[in-house]
Amino acid sequence: MRVPLSWLREYAPVPQDATAEQVLATMVSVGFEEEEVHRPSDEISGPIVVGQVLSREPEEHSNGKTVNWCQVRVVPEGQEQTLTGKGIDPSGIQGIVCGAHNFEVGDKVVVTLPGSVLPGDFRITPRKTYGHTSAGMIASVRELGIGDDHDGILVLSRIGLDPELGADALELLGLDDEAAEINVTPDRGYGFSIRGVAREYGHAVGQPFHDFVLDAAERAPEATDDGGFPVELADAAPINGVPGCDRFVTRVVKAIDPAAPTPAWMSSRLRLAGIRSLNLPVDISNYVMLEYGQPLHFYDLDEVAEKIVVRRAEPGETLTTLDDKQRKLDPEDLLITDATGPIGIAGVMGGASTEVKQETVDVLVEAAHFDPITIARSARRHRLPSEASKRFERSVDPRIQAAAAQRAVELLTELAGGTVQPGAGDVRSGAAPAAAPVLLPESYASERVGVDYAPERIEQVLTMIGCEVRPLPATGDGAPGWLVTPPSWRSDLSAPEDLAEEIARLDGYDKIPSRLPIAPPGRGLTEAQTGRNRVLASLAAAGLTEVLNYPFVSQEENDLWGAAAEGTAVPSVSLANPISEARGRLRASILPGLLETLRRNHARGFRDLALYEAGAVFLPGEKLGSAHVPPGAVALPPEVLEELNAGIPAQPWHLGMVFAGQDAPTAPGVAGRAYDWQDALDAVLLAAQSVGVQLTVRQGKHQAFHPGRTAELFTADGDSAGWAGELHPQLVAGQNLPERTCAAELDLTAILDARPDGVQAQDLSVQTPATQDVALLVDADLPASTLTETLAEGAGELLEEIRVFDVYQGDRVEPGKKSVALAMRFRAADRTLTADEASASRQAAVDLAVQRHAAVLRG
Q1: Helix (H) or strand (E) holding 361
Q2: What mean pLDDT value characterizes the chain?
Q3: What is the dihedral of CA 380, 385, 388, 390, to 10 degrees?
Q4: 42-172: what fold?
Q5: Is 498 labelled as part of a ligand binding site?
Q6: Which of 3.30.70.380, 3.10.580.10, 3.40.228.10, 3.40.50.2300 would CATH assign to domain 770-857?
Q7: Using an 8 Å Cβ cutoff, are 544 and 657 in contact?
Q8: 502 annotated ligand binder
Q9: Strand, helix or coil for residue 823
Q10: Domain B5: where (predicted)?
Q11: CATH of the domain spanning 213-428
């Protein structure tokens, strides 16, 4: 919220010499975060005064351009020029060349004299041009930085000004003003108004606040049956039982002057507040919105047919909004309609058919109160954020509509010469929404904040922010306290915690003591947390880089990565309000986000990547969600808890890794090695070994992985624990991934559950090992891991280690077969093995392989 200081001074005790920085410092003390200072004088300075055109002589030049040689008086007649400097004439009459033609002799204009500086560091100096020395410039609104119009110079009489010659034009146009911008959090929507900021400023400096809105409410006429304009509230599909509109105030102003200009003071304040001046009626509606916090909408009365009906959209309806875009309406959209159909999306943007135009003379004023949820959903659905929706979705005071409409019609009559029609329309849907009282025990705030607040101070603070405070004496059932009814503009105060926060905020955050908390007794990290930390640390030590991604994916990504078989539909959790329609599900696999990170980094020039991420995936069962929504801070019976827990999807932790490029950058004497499927497999095995788990590796098939370079991993119990390998070439090409990208995903929860109960360190043997190799000819489709398991089983307890060191297919190996060479190490705990013992154990292993797999021993 940008707050012009001249505007704030009208309603708050801001000193005349206070700067925007000082105002921001004051607002910080009551919990508003400072954003920025907006000061036009930082870009424009120097002698910029009001002048009057004495003569204008058109001159046509050889380039085909006609310019005006002007004499402009910049001091009152009979007075001497007090400004001095190069190019400033002591007589007070400046000779100026001007290329614009939209002014006449006698017009008062803005003259930038030599020595002045305009936005963009445009410095004004005397210069020779078109045969004259032009000592200054007659300025346009664009050159002054106060608008976009560059069709001609700014003629002051056309914006309702008749100032004295030589007057400071910066002060006249509000360019000497400044604005303090504060950040308004979503729960404090009242801060999006001068009313709210002035109130908070008064709290900060300890001065009472006079609510000027109450004055306008007293001036507003009573609602009458024939006043305003006929309105019907017909919301047939309220959200959560709350009507989309519960109050709709209308006023009618006729015979306004369509040519009436927006006063300079109003346009300058709107500009500083970040709103562009358009025309007087629109500017008035924006001005009142900023001042009161109540969005208004003005209609061209002649374009509104019969009566207004506030209802939900019907299927197939469309509306062309003020930005000239046709929008397809949703049945949940709340509309303002007349006999012709929709004329506006309630609380978001009006329709083009009834907008106030340059020729509009009769205006219908709307001041309504809308449901925040309805407005927020419509604004997001149509991607149409507006100043109005920003306020409505944060909740607007439901009791100021009549006052805001009164303020608007007063400005229309004062500035546009309109005539207010008697009476007012005020249609309501039931009783006005009222804040629920909150029970606040006397010691509540002190216990939670850590400051000993006196009861008198608590009552003072709550009364100051507008609450109705009713003391409650101590009884046998409870401690003393208060029943606090929040004011209508503070919908965020609904619990004792909110009131305690207000007490701390206004009494001063600086009074809260700083104390380090004492660590409670406990057992530290859980076993699962310790295990996860050990796994992640092992990968970081191996040179991989950890990343974090959002858990939001598409259904197609869940189907691709969440199931090994192609065409399998994976159950997933859909999001009610996704940040993107393309990412409307919770992930069933951790790899989609990892691959997106790899793709983005690779596109930006990072070619060698080894990334990992650990996080929860979401795997719903047969039941998802619950129809029972329990209230907060209420103990639930076991059966309700059981029903709620049954609807929560399983959320195991998964570990994902992706590899692309080389394991080391190429350098003199160093040749980088391209990552391959073995790196992905080694990383998975390293992760499991870091927590004492041995995984079995078998060749697997997964729709997203290369058909011949995929490993499936199993725990000792035979449960599948994940996948590792090279991604499918078609997938790599289709998703624009680096060539030969490799990946792995491990069920980290399953790995941690498979840890042995206790890890016993093995004794270091002092006996000499015996090593023997064996080469076996087996079927080409027999996994090496299966052969290894068979040999280990046959060799018996003397076998200490077995590993594959070569696999060969080619010459002298018949088609459909492969030669697998393995190294076997034997050792006895109590003696040195003889060669015969090692050979016997080796032969037993070979015999079992021959029996099970028809293996042939190669010589």
Answers
A1: none
A2: 91
A3: 70
A4: OB fold (Dihydrolipoamide Acetyltransferase, E2P) (2.40.50)
A5: yes
A6: 3.30.70.380
A7: yes
A8: yes
A9: strand
A10: 433-514
A11: 3.50.40.10
